[in-house]
Design goal:
Length: 179
């Protein structure tokens, strides 16, 4: 959804580099490992989950040189790509205000530059708690909503992205444009 918001907000091309293999399912397309697929106008998916770390890094560096937005879905903060990203890369984590998630985040050596918070009804922890643990600002908050799940389940995330989520991510997209 970050890539969709970048494309929509900045009106520039966005590349999603999928290192964990879940983006085709999220985007409602058939997976073709190693493939580059145009998902929508100005949105390209690069499926590299089965590539070596060196191949992943080479693709990320090549795309970064285009001057276009490159969003890397590493799946987790423990993926080895984090230690090898090019200078100037911005790490953005997506976290729930969950005790277990924050406990895990506190133990990691890699730190985010920004955090997107997935807000759930009934959670006691807040954006301030996430910022305290990660040392990074929460730059967007997305309410967990059935509309998002329905769009993904129906394979319509790119065709009809949930308005509330896109609005929440607009600030993050604008921040990446300024970087």
């Amino acid at each position: 959804m970050v890539a969709l918001a970048v494309r929509q907000t900045t009106r520039s091309h966005a590349h999603v580099v999928d290192l964990c293999g879940d983006q085709p399912a999220v985007l409602g397309i058939t997976s073709r490992q190693g493939a580059t697929t145009d998902i929508a106008e100005q949105l390209t998916l690069h499926e590299l989950a089965e590539a070596t770390i060196d191949e992943q890094l080479a693709a990320i560096c090549r795309l970064a040189q285009t001057g276009e937005h490159v969003i890397v879905d590493a799946g987790s903060a423990t993926h080895p790509i984090h230690d090898r990203l090019p200078a100037g890369a911005v790490r953005c984590w997506v976290l729930r205000p969950c005790y277990l998630a924050l406990r895990k985040a506190a133990t990691l050596t890699v730190r985010p530059d920004h955090v997107v918070m997935l807000d759930e009804i009934g959670r006691a922890l807040t954006a301030t708690d996430i910022e305290t643990v990660t040392g990074a600002p929460v730059v967007a908050t997305i309410d967990i909503h059935p509309q998002i799940a329905r769009a993904i389940d129906a394979g319509l995330l790119t065709a009809r992205p949930p308005h509330a989520a896109m609005t929440a991510l607009a600030a993050l997209a604008q921040r990446t444009q300024a970087a």
